[in-house]
Write a structure and sequence with these properties.
The chain is of the alpha+beta class and about 425 residues long. It has 22 helices and eleven strands. The protein has three domains: about 150 residues, 2-Layer Sandwich (Beta Polymerase, domain 2), CATH 3.30.460.10; about 130 residues, Orthogonal Bundle (cca-adding enzyme, domain 2), CATH 1.10.3090; about 60 residues, no CATH class. Bound molecules: adenosine-5'-triphosphate. Adenosine-5'-triphosphate binds next to helix 3, strand 2 and helix 8.
Length: about 425
Amino acid sequence: MEKHLKRLPEELLSLICVSGDIAGHLGFRAYLVGGFVRDLILGVKNFDLDIAVEGDGILFAEALAEKLNAKIISHKRFGTATVTLKPHLKLDIATTRKEFYPEPGSLPVVNKGSIKDDLFRRDFTINTLVIAINKDNFGQLMDLFKGKSDILARKVRILHNLSFIDDPTRILRAVRFQKRYDFQIEPNTLKRLKEAVKLKMLFAIEPQRLRDELILMLKENEPLRALKRLEELAGLSFINPDLKLSGKTEKFLGSCQDQVKWFKSKFSQHRHLDSWLVYLAGLLSGLDLEAVRAVCERFVFRKGEAKRILEFFLLRDKLLVKLSLPGLRPSSVFHLLEPLSYEVIILLKAAAANKFAHVNMENFFHAYNGTAIYLRGHDLKGLGIAPGPHYQKIFRRVLNAKLNGKVKTVQEELDFVKKLKNAGTVARFGKENSNG
Ligand code: ATP
């Protein structure tokens, strides 16, 4: 495997070498594992290094973070840590472990183990490849489950027949890898997956664990493909009894994908978008508000996440009507959209059939959003306007004028306020405030 490693970008290769050296100094053995090795063989770019350490993963991670002056987050209870070098370059480090499932669908009992034990607990053969990185055996491949030939034959294969019973979240993982890489789920794996579905194993585990896997699925580039396959193999009733991928929902999800791509192509440098949240709301779009609320509660989505999802369902009809009006002023579009999250606006854009609504939302992203005025309180004071709550009203008027293209420069903003003052508008604002 050395030649595969040598083809990596310099930055990654030297990080791997340093990791191997540090493990050696501490008397540990370290290995590249899981998705990173799978993607290395597939020739797919991956900057998330998974490192398994025979020894103490946390101690290793701390030494590495110190050497590289990098950020570290450790989870002592799990013997895992994440070392982040740059936003796009991180190492997930774990102490090698042995797991067994006392009951189907339960959480596994975890003990320290060797690298071989660590491989037995994994989901699919494609994720069981290991590359040693200590100096004395750098680049040596360990392939206990013929993972490499499955990767090359593009097959998702479980390690043992009870795999989906032990951990039904693997049903979602199988579908995710199949669709991401255009693999096949090999026949015995498919048979066992269907057996687990029949046994209703997806209803037997903690919803939070399903939620985490569902989010990973929705973070894929084109999650619709995976969702369709998931429905085909397992149905979606484990999310909600009435949930189906109807033609309408599929069309809407397709439109969400287009809008997320549009946003990412234009604005991803400036602003992160939780695309998974857009897709989740899209998936649930055929359900009524109460059912969506129940899904948010059962899967224990975070408050801010549930708020964004529900906001779409609460506001979509009303906002789409308003945004579709021809001749809407930029300031009106701004005040309609500015309080919303970007995820909700992208969902509205995906749902909008009306040309004006589309143009209004595009203009919001391109031009109106982030518009700010120059004037501050001391400028108003300088114009002889006594401070008070009416300042907010004045600022809003200036902002509207700016959005509508009536003022541009500081001087024009000042002149605009002078006109408001001369016309008695400022005095009226003051009176309105004092009357409550
Ligand atoms: P991705 O490219 O999506 O990050 P990954 O293979 O790195 O893929 P993770 O979800 O980050 O996937 O998991 C890391 C590794 O941990 C996997 O390669 C797999 O071997 C193992 N793993 C994760 N979840 C499970 C599970 N439910 N059962 C068994 N092994 C798992």
